[in-house]
Each structure stands twice: as structure tokens, then as C-alpha cells.
Design goal:
Elements (H helix, E strand, L loop, with lengths): L5 H19 L7 E2 L2 E5 H20 L21 H22 L14 H23 L7 H20 L3 H4 L6 E7 L6 E7 L2 E5 L7 E5 L1 H8 L11 E4 L1 H10 L4
Keywords: Isomerase
InterPro entries: DinB/YfiT-like (IPR034660), Maleyloyr_isom (IPR017517), MDMPI_C-term_domain (IPR010872), MDMPI_metal-binding (IPR024344)
Pfam families: MDMPI_C (PF07398), MDMPI_N (PF11716)
Length: 258
């Protein structure tokens, strides 16, 4: 598994935000987001725009510790006007991408993850936007599509994050264990886009591989990514679950933090 180029992540922050803005434009901002029912569509947009600006400020200031939200300039939009929200989203994504481009992937900055670099934040914000673009599209009932390499990287990154959470003792992730069981993800439209998650007594490991498993999730790559991020139900007719479906449910229920 290799990362996408740093510049690509920076570009995708802007491009995925443009797609999210297109989904939000003209939609009911008070509509409940079905995949994040505690949020309205406006809440979703404000969350993402704030995350962009927070990450950008961490990198811009080369922060050595977590940055409080009240130290992030324009962390929230000024008022409820949809046009103001749209401009605020666009400006935040563009500014954050520019900060990350200028920093380069190796610049050191605080993060909650083991990788404390601008490269981590570029990837994290690009993929955060990939997932929340899906939330916006589902809410606004507009089509959603994702480039295969970015969809695959979204799965890779989430597996890394769940493994990190387990190593750090996060309670839900700590339960992802049990020798002799395995979960296989198989994209039917992207050669080589397959993952094998193997559960052991001390936790789980993962790798890109094709192998028999206790349970398998098959379908188009974007749909696999959406299921894995709990944006598409595993019983959807867009994917197929083979073998022990309860194992997939077990994984999804214990990787839902964050």
C-alpha cells in the first residue's frame, strides 16, 4: 500500500469540497443527514469547513500541541445565509490546501495520530471530505461517485486508524479480536482492490490480499468504501455479503468511533 501524492491530497480537498458544495447548493440546510442523524445538512457543512480550517491552522503555525478551536480564525461562518456558508466552505478549503502545499508532506505539526506531519493532515482532510461529500449527496439525494484510487485509499486509511485506536486502547476497537476469523473486501470493478482483515487473540491485522475468509463483502469499490464507512447499509442490493454476515456487523459496530 502506498500513499497518493501529497499534491493530489491537497487538490482533492478543494475538488471534493466543490462537489459537496454543489450537493448542498439549493438543498434544505435544515434536513437531517441520514448517516449522521445528530446533524442537519448545515451542521455537516460547518463541521467540515471548521475541520479544514483547524487542520490548516495546525500546519500553518507548526503547532506542537492540540489547537483550541477558539484560536482558529473564522472557524465558523458569519451567519446563516446559504451564500455566506458556501463562500466560507470554498475559502477554507482553498486556504487549507494552499497551506499544505507550501508546507510539503514532511513538515512537522501536532496530530492525534502517530504521524505528526503536514502529509498526515493533507491525507486526513482529503478523506474527511470524501466521506462527508457522501453524507451531503445522500441527504440532498444527488449522485455520488469517487475515483477508484481515492476510494481505495479511504479504506486503507480507516484500517490504519482503527488499528491505531486499538493499539491506544480505544474500548470499541479493543474488542476487534478473536482468533480464526477473517473478513475479506473484494471490489468487483477495480483489479487489485482487495483487503483481508484477520482477527487474532491480541487484535487484528490487515493487508491487501485475495484469500478465503470467514465473511466477504463484494461490490463496486465506491460502495465497499461507503459500507466500510457506514454510509451504505451492508444489506444494500449494491453489495453482496458472503459467509458469516455477523462478522461484518461485528466490525462495523466496533469501528464507528471518531
Amino acid at each position: 500500500m502506498s500513499l497518493l501524492p501529497h499534491e493530489r491530497y491537497c487538490d482533492e480537498i478543494v475538488l471534493r469540497t466543490e462537489a459537496l458544495r454543489a450537493a448542498v447548493n439549493g438543498a434544505d440546510l435544515d434536513a437531517t443527514v441520514p448517516t449522521c442523524p445528530e446533524w442537519t445538512l448545515r451542521d455537516l457543512a460547518v463541521h467540515l469547513g471548521g475541520a479544514h480550517r483547524w487542520a490548516g491552522e495546525i500546519v500553518r503555525t507548526r503547532a506542537t500541541e492540540e489547537l483550541p478551536e477558539d484560536r482558529v480564525p473564522h472557524f465558523t461562518p458569519d451567519g446563516d445565509d446559504p451564500a455566506v456558508l458556501d463562500a466560507w466552505l470554498a475559502d477554507g478549503a482553498a486556504r487549507t490546501a494552499e497551506v499544505l502545499r507550501e508546507a510539503g508532506p514532511e513538515l512537522k505539526a501536532w496530530s492525534w495520530y502517530r504521524d505528526r506531519s503536514a502529509g498526515f493532515w493533507a491525507r486526513r482532510m482529503a478523506i474527511e471530505t470524501v466521506v462527508h461529500q457522501a453524507d451531503a449527496a445522500l441527504t440532498a439525494k444527488v449522485p455520488y461517485a469517487m475515483a477508484p484510487d481515492l476510494a481505495a485509499d479511504t479504506i486503507d486509511e480507516w484500517l490504519d486508524i482503527v488499528a491505531f485506536a486499538q493499539a491506544e486502547g480505544e474500548p470499541e476497537a479493543a474488542e476487534l479480536r478473536g482468533a480464526g476469523r477473517s473478513l475479506h473486501l473484494h471490489a468487483t470493478d477495480a483489479p487489485g482492490a482487495e483487503w483481508l482483515i484477520e482477527f487474532g487473540e491480541d487484535g487484528f491485522t490487515w493487508r491487501r490480499a485475495h484469500d478465503k475468509a470467514t465473511a466477504a463483502l463484494r461490490g463496486p469499490l465506491t460502495d465497499l468504501m461507503l459500507v466500510f464507512n457506514r454510509r451504505l447499509a451492508p444489506d444494500s442490493d449494491r453489495v453482496e455479503v458472503l459467509g458469516d454476515a455477523e462478522l461484518l456487523d461485528f466490525w462495523l459496530a466496533r469501528s464507528s468511533f471518531g
